[in-house]
Known about the structure:
By secondary structure, this protein is an all-beta fold.
Amino acid sequence: MSLMNNYDVKHYNLDLEISNLSPSISGNVTITSLVTSLKLDTFVIELITSTKAADYTFMKVDSVKVNNTIKSFVHQDDLIIIPTINSITQGSLFSVQVFYHGLATAFDFTRLNDGTVLYNQGIRVVNNQKQSFSMSESRGAKIWWTV
Length: 147
């Protein structure tokens, strides 16, 4: 059973610094979730680290908090793995806050490690005007915020 099946996300709060003048993104995402398993001792979310199609690192995680306490984490293979140390019991609400930064570059397409193809991420210039955009539906969100 996947560790991502042990909780139910109730709310995402994105607090990001984004400008159409720069491809830089920085900020944090707070995820409020409900424990659905008997206990939760590890929290796992997705944030793409890189793609096979491009030698490029997307977002770098700076720090992670669980219920306002800084926790250790591992960010590899498109997953952020956070041991909660003290198990959170079934039926409990908890929050995870992920602080990160990176660059959103325009891709005509991005082939993810699982073969999924995403189109047009980042910043592009149309009629001499910079535009920021993201095709986040389905599986594209994990390129620029944690899901």
